[in-house]
Amino acid sequence: MKSGELKMGWARQYMPVLGEIRKKFEAEKPLAGQKIGMALHIEAKTAVLVETLAAGGAEVYITGCNPLSTQDDVAEALDRVKGVHCYAQRACSNEDYYAAIDKVLDQNPTVTIDDGMDLIHRLHTGRRELLDNIVGGCEETTTGIHRLRAMAADGALEFPVIAVNDTPMKRCFDNVHGTGESALSAVMITTNSLIGGKWFVVAGYGYCGRGLAKMAHGLGAKVVVTEIDPRRALEAHMDGYHVMSMAEAAKIGDIFVTTTGNTSVISEKDFRNMKDGVILSNAGHFNVEIDIPWLEANKDGYEARDSIETYIIDNKRINILAEGRLVNLATMKGMGHPIEVMDLSFALQALCSDYILREGPGLTGGVYEVPNEIDVSVASIKLKSLGVEIDRLTEEQEHYMNSWDIGT
C-alpha cells in the first residue's frame, strides 16, 4: 500500500462520524448524478470526506486551497479513488494554483465546497457562464465567510452558500481545539523552540485565537492578546491574558501567531520594534496577515531551516514560518487539525452538501446557517461513538420550556 493510502487509512479509523455518514450515503446514494467541485487542504482527513461524497454517488473534482497545504502522496491517492479527480500539487506557482481551480470548474459542478472562497470568487469574476448550473455551496473557514458576507451585502452572491464555519460544532471544536492544538504543534515542531516562559502573542481573540491562547498558556507561556474589538479584548483580559496593542506587543513578544483573517496585522513598524530571533507565524487562511512583501522587497532573507525564512532588519533576525501561510498545514511538518476534530467539521460538510442539493433550488443567493438538526445530529453521532449518554427533556420539562404562563 502506498503512503497516501496509508495516511488515509490512519485517518479513517479515527473518524467515526464520517464513517456513519458514509454507510448512509452508500445505501441511499443521495448525491447520485451530481458533480461536486472542491477547493480544500489536500491531506488525509480531507481525503476521507472526498471518499464519503463519492460513496454517496457524486463525481468529485478537487484541488487545493493553499499552495503549501497539499500533500502530494494524498493527492495521488485521491486520484486513484473511483469517481474522484484531484488536480492539486504542493508548492505550485500562483498561476498553476488558479489553473487548477479552473480545471475543477471546467467540469461544470453543481455544488461547491470551499475553504477560503476561491472557487466561488472565480465563478463570479471569471467563469460566470457556469453560475446557472450551481445549486449551492458550502464554506469551511472564517476568512471565506467574511468574503461571502461582503459579497452578499453587495448583492453579488448569486447562489446559496452554507456557512459551515459559523455553526457551534465547527467553531467550538475545529476553531478552538483544532487551531489551538495544530498551530501550536506546528510552531513547536518547526522551530524546536520552548513555549514555557516565552511571551506568546496571539493577534485576534476570536474562536481560533481563544483556542491558541488557552493551549499556549497551558504550556507555561506568558500570553499576550491583541485585538480591535473592545468586547473581545475585555474577554481576553478577564480570561487572564495580557491585552495590549500590537505596537506594544512587538517590543516584548518572542513568538507571534496571527488569527485575524485581516491584512497587515504585523507590518514594518512592528518588525523594527521586535527582538532579535523573534518567531512570526500565521494561523489565518491567507498569507496577508504578516507583511511578507515588505520583507522581501526591503531585506535580505535566507532559509534558516525547513519552513523558516530569516530576514535581517536593523541587525536583528526576524524568523517567518511557512512564508506567512497557514502554519499548521504549510510547514513541512504541518499535519493540520487533529483527526477527531476534522471528523466533526467534515461530517458537517457532507451533510450540508446533501442539504443544499435538496433545498438549494428553493433558496436565493446569500449566506445561510447550518440547519440546527444537522449540527445536533453530528454531535449525537459523536457522543454515541464515545459511548456517552446524556439526559433528555421529560414531557413536563418540554411543556415548561415552551410555556410563558407558568409562574414561579
From TrEMBL:
Keywords: Hydrolase, NAD, One-carbon metabolism. NAD(+) binds at residues 141-143, 206-211, 227, 283-285, 328, 337. Gene3D superfamilies: Adenosylhomocysteinase-like, NAD(P)-binding Rossmann-like Domain. Binds 1 NAD(+) per subunit. One of its GO terms (cellular component) is cytosol. Its cofactor is NAD(+). Its EC number is 3.13.2.1. SUPFAM superfamilies: Formate/glycerate dehydrogenase catalytic domain-like, NAD(P)-binding Rossmann-fold domains. The keyword Transmembrane does not apply. Residues 175-334 form the S-adenosyl-L-homocysteine hydrolase NAD binding domain. Belongs to the adenosylhomocysteinase family. This is Adenosylhomocysteinase. It comes from Methanoplanus limicola DSM 2279.
